Amino acid sequence: MLPHVGAGVLLLTTLLGLGNARAADIDLFQPSGAFALGGGTPQGEEAVVGPVGPMLGLTTSFAQRPTPRRLGVASVEAIMPMTLQGSWAPSERARIDLSLPTYAFVSAPVNDFRGASLGDLRTQVVLPTAGETESFRYGVAPQLTVPTGTGSALTRTGASAGLAMLFSGRSGPMGWLVDLGLTGAAADVVDDVGLGSSGWMVAGVWGHATDATRFGLELDFHHALVVGLEGPNRAGSIHAFAQNETRSGIALGLLGGTGWLRGVGAPEYRLGATLSWHTDRKPSPQPTVVALDDDDCPPGAVCDDEDRDGDGFVDAADMCPDQAEDIDGYADDDGCPEADNDGDGVADVDDACPLVRGPRAQGGCPDQDADGVPDPRDLCPAMAGPEETEGCPDRDRDRIPDIRDACPDRAAPPVARGGASDGCPTGAWVDDDRIVLASPIAFTPGTDSLLDSDAALDDLATLLLENPGLTIVEVAGHTDNRGDRDANQTLSLARAEAVAAALSSRGVASGRLKARGYGDQHPIDTNRTAAGRANNARIEIVPLQGPGVSRPVSRQARPEPTGTQGKLTIKVTAGLWGDVYIDGVRLNQGAPFTDTPIDVGAHNLRVVNPSRQLEWEGTISIRPGETLTVEIPWTTWKPE
What is the spatial distance between Cα 339 and Cα 331, in angstroms, rounded to a whole number? Predict the structure, then answer.
C-alpha cells in the first residue's frame, strides 16, 4: 500500500502550488464509479474494482441553492448537473474511471450567468490492495481534473489533483465504506469563504432487501484549506438512496438529500437518478457436465459418463441419476426434481401456486383473509367475503360485492345479481322465506290509510300475478311498542287488510291473501330510537304455500324489554361472516357486529353460513346494561 500512497503524495505536492486562473466550482457532488457499477454509495468508492470490463453511466440531479443566502440572496440559485461516466477494468486489481459533468441549467446571479455549461473532466484510478477480506478492504484512488468547465458559471475548478484512501467492508446483506481524501486546487473565494485545496470525507452504509435491490445512506463533509474573509468553506450533505441491478448489468438508482452543514456546495435539497450498464460477471448457474473417456479413466475416479435419466446431467455429477431434473427455474443445478417447490405439502403438479405456500384446500395458493377464496381468485384478498362475490364483502347478501355495490346495505333483486346492476333494489322479488319490496308500504301515522305506496303495491301485485305458484301469501302487519298493546294489535290487522284490499283491486285473487296483525309482538329492531321504531312498524309479505315452501313460516315472539336493554357483540373466527337469527327472526345485520342493542332476557341465538358449513346455535341471556360478547367457533378449514 505504501507505494500507492507515496505516488499520490508526490502528485499532490506538485499540484498544490498551481496558480491557474481563478474559477471556483461550487458543485461538490462527484458521482462515484462504484455506484454506477452497483456498489458503494452515490459519492463513495469501495476498495474493490467491481465487474471486469467496460461500464457506461449517466447521473443527473437537481440542486436548489447550492450556496447559502447572504443578505437574502444566494450567489447560485440552482444547478442541474448531468454527468457522463465511463469505466474500464482490465482486471480485478485496477479500474480506470472517466467522468464529464455537463450542466443542463445553471442560475448564478453573482456572475449574471443563466444557462447551460460544462464542468471539469475528471479521471481516477481505483487500486485495491492485496490481502483484504470480505469484511474489511482498503485501497487508494489517485484523481486528476482537467479544466474544461465554464468559469463564469462557477462550474470550473481548473487543474487539480487528489488522493483518496478507501476503506470498505461487507457482511451478509449489509455494507459500509469510509473514503478520506485530499485535493490540491487553485484558490478562490465565493461568498467570502475560501475555496480550492481541501480535505474531504464520504461515509455510507447500505443493506440489501433482495439480491438485486438495496437501500442506504451516505454523509459527506468538505473542509477547504483556503481562508477567505469569513474563513474556509465548510460544507456537508446527507443523501438517502435506493438502487436496483438486473442480471443483465443494468442498474437504476435514485437519491435525495439535503445539506446538513450549509456551506458552498451543500444545497437546500438535491434529487437525482442514475442509469448505468456494465458487463455481467454473474452468469446463471449451469449444470456441471463431466465428460469422461472410458479408455482414459484416472485410477480411483468414478468413470460413468452415462445419463440414465436423460436430464443433461451425467451420472457422475447427478445427485439423482435415476430421476430427471425438472427444469422450472427452481433449484435446477443438482439433477434432482423438486416435487414441491414451495414446501407447502401440495405437489407441484397439483399446486396452482407452486412457488408460494398455501393450504391444500385452496389448491396450494395462499388465502390471507381465510375466506376460502384463494388470493389469485380473490378480488379482495385482505377482506373476507363469500365465493359468490369472488371473496369480497357483501353486507346486503345480494351477490354484488360492496366494492361495486352503490347500495351496499339494500339488497338488489336476484334477477340483477351477477349482471350489470349497480346493486340498488328495484321492484319486488322472493328472497328465502319472504317477499322483498324495493319501495316500502307506508301509512299515515296512527291510521290504516296508505300513504305514497302505489309504486310498492304495483310491484307486489305484478310479482304475485306473474307467479301463480305462490298460491297463498300472508300479509302481516306489525307496529312498534308505543301505545296500548290491544290498540296496536287492531291497527296492525287493519293495515294488513288495507294492503290485501289494495292488491285485490290490482287483480290478485283475494283467496290468495291472508291478512294478519301481530301488533308489537315481533320487533326486528330496537324501539328506543325513531329509526328502530320505523323499522318495526312494517308490512311483511310471507309466502305460505308455493314452490320451496314446505310449511307455513312460524315466528316466535321475542320477550318484551323490561324497561332497559343490553348490547350484543358477535365475533366469528377466521374472519368469516354469517346470518344471525334471534328467537327465529333473522336480523337485517349479519355477523360479525359490535354493540347491537338487544332486549334483556333469554334469547335463542343462531349464526349460519351454509356456503362455509358454519352452523352454530345456543342460548344467551342479556342483563340490563350488559354488553355480551359471543365468539362463534369455526374449524371447518385447517391450514395444511
Answer: 11
